[in-house]
Amino acid sequence: MDKQQEYVLRTVEERDVRFIRLWFTDVLGLLKSVAITASELENAFEEGIGFDGSAIDGFARVQEADMLAVPDASTFQILPWRPESQGVARMFCDIVTPDGQPFAADPRQVLKRQLERAQDMGFTFYIHPEMEFFLFEDSKSTVPLDNGSYFDMTPLDVQQDFRRQAINMLERMGISVEYSHHEVAPSQHEIDLRYADALTMADNIMTFRLVVKETALHRGVYATFMPKPMEGQWGNAMHLHLSLFEGDTNAFHDASDRYHLSPTAKKFTAGLLRHAREITAVTNQWVNSYKRLTARLHGPLPSGEAPVYISWGHSNRSALIRVPLYKPRKGASSRIEYRSPDPACNPYLAFALILAAGLKGIEENYEMPEESEDNTFELSPVERAASGIDRLPSSLGEALKAMEESELVAETLGEHLFSYFLANKRQEWDEYAAHVTQFEVDRYLQLL
């Protein structure tokens, strides 16, 4: 037993923790939990906790269903919304097979494989996400709780209290918050998490989503990370600020470059641009995700600055990848911002594919295309074609087709998870395609 496990056992006894929730995610990124008592914790560290893998979406075929959840002691935190007496803690788990081998289709393991690959190249992958969400009266309607807009502060903004309460809970769980504010749409909010290594951040995002929902529940409202819950309003994004470090040195920084981007950063960016279409089915995995990504293609709806076209720029917020303003004497802050993901994705799989695409660019010396200085929405199709600017998939069906043909995605996810994800999402898309919407009834019933 290592020192971290001994620390957890000692803390459980000293803090009167009665139950420990063991957390992991299924392929779609939905949080799963099994609770054990404190008396079972030592055995869980040594042997894992058995469960039927076939009961979890995408985990195992029935004939190979037995799985073990092995808690990661480094993720131990006491849940602040539970009573202090006979309290409740949580740990994230790695899923292993009965013979102790990492289960290849465990999303956390998929990310770990890519992080090991980066480590072999000398890199650590860091991420700083901007998490957006809406607060509504309940889960059955999209009635906003305010009419605020970007950075608004109103005297009766009860959501300020919400954000303060949520941030307090996050920080009590060891998750550092950089800042928070009201977003552009009514009742929309953003909380930005301080950067961390990719595995820690994926765990943090899973915790963040639960904390926000728990806080909303306690306040009698409902929080949602649905990408586009309201027509005609901005959607929820999860802009990701990305960087690679070599030890304590930011591998993306080059003081002599115009944008202070190193050759490593440019190759990483080129990889992400080249493979963006292939990974979008994972970074934007729901039918509803594409209502956000296609908002500016037709009609006067606001874009929410959601990227549609595959380009990069410095101050161009219509671009898929933005190079944020460089801060003098802060080389460690050099980074790129990937703007298409939404906060309802599986962060383990999304981060794994983003990293795989970037590392591919580094390994194969991809060349970064020219910067797009113009607003890509205002360019004509001919101008975009002349500039070599492709478009992100405009529907889940189109994204799945791009993913299905991708060697990079198949290799990164592994055969089992790749096949299951495609099958599950094909079913979702087919059900949606067969659904007769209110839009069709209103437009065609009296016309045809």
Class computed from helices, strands and strand pairing:
alpha+beta
What is the CATH class of the largest domain?
Alpha Beta
Helix content: 25-40%
How can the largest sheet be summarized? 10 strands, mixed
**Rg, alpha carbons:** 22 Å
CATH architecture of the largest domain: 2-Layer Sandwich
Mean pLDDT: 89
Number of strands: 18
Let me know the CATH homologous superfamily of the largest domain. Glutamine synthetase/guanido kinase, catalytic domain
Low-confidence stretches: 297-303
Tally of helical runs: 14
- Form type: globular
| Number of separate structural domains | 2
Named CATH topology of the largest domain:
Creatine Kinase, Chain A, domain 2
What is the percentage of strand-forming residues?
A: 15-25%
**CA distance, first residue to last residue:** 72 Å
How do you describe this structure in short?
This protein has 448 residues and is α+β, with helices and mostly antiparallel strands.
Structural commentary:
The protein is an alpha+beta fold and 448 residues long. The protein has two domains: 3-101, Ubiquitin-like (UB roll) (Roll); 112-443, 2-Layer Sandwich (Creatine Kinase, Chain A, domain 2), CATH 3.30.590.10. The chain is built from 14 helices and 18 strands. It has helices at 3-14, 41-47, 107-120, 158-172, 198-218, 263-274, 276-283, 289-293, 347-363, 381-386, 396-404, 407-413, 415-434, 438-444, and strands at residues 17-25, 31-37, 49-52, 66-71, 77-78, 87-96, 124-136, 177-182, 188-193, 196-197, 222-224, 238-246, 249-250, 309-310, 312-313, 321-322, 336-338, 390-391. Strands 7, 8, 9, 10, 11, 12, 13, 15, 16 and 17 form a ten-stranded mixed beta sheet that branches. Strands 1, 2, 3, 4, 5 and 6 form a six-stranded mixed beta sheet that branches. A two-stranded antiparallel ribbon has the order 14-18. A hairpin with a 2-residue loop joins strand 12 (238-246) and strand 13. Helix 3 runs parallel beside helix 9 (347-363) and helix 7 (276-283) crosses helix 11. The longest helix has 21 residues, at 198-218. The protein is globular, with a radius of gyration of 22 Å. The N and C termini lie far apart (72 Å). 44% of the residues are buried. Residues 297-303 have low confidence and may be disordered.
